[in-house]
Design brief:
Blueprint (H helix, E strand, L loop, with lengths): L14 H29 L4 H27 L2 H5 L5 H12 L1 H32 L5 H32 L1 H17 L1
Helix pairs in contact: 1-5, 2-5, 2-6, 2-7, 4-7, 5-6
């Protein structure tokens, strides 16, 4: 009559998974710290134009990193194996695809999410700068709500376009990322 409480035996996390989680958490912390300090230093100049440019840079990084993460995740290994890339490039591209869970985590979750948060921070700073000269409280609310809606709307719009592009051009994007990684590893 009474149901027994059954515990499902989980395999737990392997040492390598725990190490990966620790590394990616530290990476997220330090990237966030560096980008936040950079943003604060520049935006403390109280220059509205600079604050808007920083917002647009963070928004572009957010969209671009999600696009790269999705392209690497959706690219088929067979397409790379059957490609006519030179062997070094093919090897680099295959490594990206075989590590797609980690690459996607870094690109989408670490860089993309951090930039998304910093878009909100930048938007708040812009609203503060704009509403300093406004004395009507309801107008201040409208400026804040409008900025939030604008940031969200533009981010969703550009992410929708970039995700479609990433899925349809995954092999080309992976090739470009592979080429980029080959070039920076030579220097």
């Amino acid at each position: 009559m009474f149901k027994k409480d059954y515990k499902v035996k989980g395999q737990g996390l392997s040492k390598s998974t725990k190490l990966w989680i620790a590394k990616v958490t530290l990476l997220a912390f330090f990237i966030s710290l560096i980008l936040s300090i950079f943003s604060e230093l520049i935006q403390n100049s109280n220059n509205l134009v600079i604050a808007i440019v920083i917002l647009l840079v963070f928004m572009a990084l957010n969209v671009l990193s999600d696009m790269v993460g999705l392209a690497i995740t959706s690219c088929q290994i067979e397409n790379i194996e059957n490609s006519k890339f030179d062997e070094k490039l093919k090897k680099k591209c295959l490594l990206l695809i075989k590590s797609s869970d980690k690459v996607s985590s870094i690109m989408c979750d670490v860089i993309g999410d951090i930039c998304g948060i910093l878009c909100g921070v930048s938007g708040t700073i812009i609203v503060y700068m704009m509403s300093n000269s406004v004395e009507i409280y309801s107008l201040k609310i409208f400026i804040g709500a409008g900025m939030s809606a604008l940031i969200a709307g533009l981010t969703v719009f550009f992410k929708a376009i970039s995700k479609n592009f990433a899925v349809n051009n995954a092999q080309k994007i992976v090739k470009k990322i592979g080429n980029f990684l080959l070039k920076i590893s030579k220097n």
